[in-house]
Amino acid sequence: MLAINLKSYKETIGSNGLKLLEASEKIIEEYNIDIILAPQYTDIYIFSSNSKRVRIYAQHMDPIQSGAYTGHILPEAIKEAGAVGTIINHSEKKLNVEDIEKVINIAKNLNLETILCANNSVVAAALSKFEPTYIAVEPPELIGTGIPVSKAKPEIIENTVNMVRDINKKVKILVGAGINSGDDIKKALELGANGVLLASAVTKSSNFYEKLKNLAEGFK
Amino acid sequence: MLAINLKSYKETIGSNGLKLLEASEKIIEEYNIDIILAPQYTDIYIFSSNSKRVRIYAQHMDPIQSGAYTGHILPEAIKEAGAVGTIINHSEKKLNVEDIEKVINIAKNLNLETILCANNSVVAAALSKFEPTYIAVEPPELIGTGIPVSKAKPEIIENTVNMVRDINKKVKILVGAGINSGDDIKKALELGANGVLLASAVTKSSNFYEKLKNLAEGFK
Amino acid sequence: MLAINLKSYKETIGSNGLKLLEASEKIIEEYNIDIILAPQYTDIYIFSSNSKRVRIYAQHMDPIQSGAYTGHILPEAIKEAGAVGTIINHSEKKLNVEDIEKVINIAKNLNLETILCANNSVVAAALSKFEPTYIAVEPPELIGTGIPVSKAKPEIIENTVNMVRDINKKVKILVGAGINSGDDIKKALELGANGVLLASAVTKSSNFYEKLKNLAEGFK
Amino acid sequence: MLAINLKSYKETIGSNGLKLLEASEKIIEEYNIDIILAPQYTDIYIFSSNSKRVRIYAQHMDPIQSGAYTGHILPEAIKEAGAVGTIINHSEKKLNVEDIEKVINIAKNLNLETILCANNSVVAAALSKFEPTYIAVEPPELIGTGIPVSKAKPEIIENTVNMVRDINKKVKILVGAGINSGDDIKKALELGANGVLLASAVTKSSNFYEKLKNLAEGFK
Q1: Which family would the database say this protein is a member of (chains A, B, C, D) (predicted)?
Q2: Chain C residues within an 8 Å CB radius of A91
Q3: Which domains are seen in chain D, by residue range?
Q4: How far apart are CA B63 and CA B104, in angstroms?
């Protein structure tokens, strides 16, 4: 599973983003892998309207029900726009622990999947208690560096797999930070991860299709 | 000018929201007034794609340029989705003062209009120094109560007009909180306001067209 | 164990607070129980200078090392002022999960004890993974109500004890919210708690000694 | 006027901080200048108990009245501990604009002075509307660099003086960021400032007295 977080990169908003969507659809056909794209909120509708097999996620949503919350992200609006899941607690959009539990429960009630982020193995283990669909471990010091966690700190992946499994047998485990090639992915999968979470490696790429192809090779 | 903040009310997301858009277009034709709708981020694209004269705003945007900001609201994405402006610093989405100045400057560079919110006259006067398109004064204790600021606290409107004009002659002044009828609007305009900012009075209405018609009468 | 959070109540700042300290010392002598007082930061020094057996805690500290953090709570300053521990993640001062782990580790390095707060059993279980000295479960809807959690929602205490023990055998478990009498405490201890966390029941009392005496009876 | 913000530097907590206090008292006697020290909250009591002419400030306080605010900074506790004022809205402890107005009004009611911080001239002008005792302008990009604002960006000081005076004739104007010597201070005063706000230049100094002496020369 390849999850791509488009963050606030302008390279992948609007019509440019749709090119990434198109390339992702091709890769799914060729490699039969699972791809998630998490665009800006404003792009969820147009992405999901144009996707066939790519699953569209939000990058965050607020732990709220319908109400007087100006500027907040209503989970029901995320769902209505066509998203099938959301990232939660990314290191660039942290939540307090009470809100993490609340928003995961709201997601479950709406049948939205969740990628819940953690900065290390211990935090991943603690958060797995909330039973998200995926736990993603990303050491913040490697995010955006191009130094792949699977090579620089393989023990983080191994520890996460072991510690999370102690608490929660079912949750799928993603790893991220610095992942840049199919080889980095292969290594992550060998260490027990179920998939990866990427961002700039793809969004900043000059050729989305070629980049995704290289990454997809890691799943063979 | 009638600005309607759809907040996180589920009554006006997706296709329901488009009915409010349609009713607003009709009112503009009949009354020749200016209407702004500020939907959830996820609805900006579909609202702006379907609007003729209604101007679509975001409810907030973050003081950021393109970059690694997961879950944030990129101003360029707001613009790309078709919004022509944004609310800033609503009492339900407050910003620190440094970020207010930053995001107003970003909006100006992108030719986005701004409705900058203040909770009282003194704050409105201070913030008018940043030269937003509109200053909106809303006493938080009246928001959502149905007790109209223009009748319950007319001195807030008069003071705001006087104090803001001392610092900034050009900015247009909106008032909000509890505004519920054409009569409340008439009173606000008489006190020197250039328009009003509403939310639940419209979004919770069982008949958008009739509600807007009643409000529009206040501008005659 | 009786932990009393003085919050931002003016009734227990400065010299008034010292009267509560004095009453607490008397109760410790008479009942041989363990009492913690968590005053305003500004009072930690004078409380710890005057305490004999009462243990003085901070109400919060920031996950920081010495540095350029204006207005923050430096853990080393808390220690230097004489505190022996700190409350963390109270529902009135929530932290993101990454910072919770960080500040617990900083506390351990400084030999400071920690009372880590959780709003329900599942959150308590997750957070017990971080190995604080105490986990305190407090349903926010009962805080300050005078409706004791141990009587209104005994299942929260039982579930917390069971779920926390699954993950962490050593951490001591406190309960709070609405605890107002020795009888409420007795019930909490019977359900498996190791102690209680209180606030307004004591700080708003007209006679600190009599109130504490009534509470201490619950430990017999 | 020389205001020194001790931030969260461990070099100036507890008994080490008292040495800085002592050096400051000597400088006041020798140079007859006005010195403010803003220590950690935990040190306010012991600093103010030991000060003769040095004025003790808090680094921040919360916009609250007595109540259930765990971990917050109660203004009345700041006052009770002996502080005579507080820094507000430092770039390391920013507040939303509504809270800035609230906390300044609370300070006035308690007869506490205020140093209200702004990151540039326009923000300083806007905030001067709230009538703090002092406005301090500090370009964040120079804080802690040792590159003095008075030499690197003299126009910021001139613009601030002019723009603030347009809105508020009475407020005293401080400047900060990179100020490191008496010469930097002399230049700031020549440009129209009434004093300076410093931090690491003093707190990281190996000899508080000699450092302060060098700075005090700037006021001659």
Answers
A1: Belongs to the triosephosphate isomerase family.
A2: 98
A3: 2-219 (3.20.20.70)
A4: 8
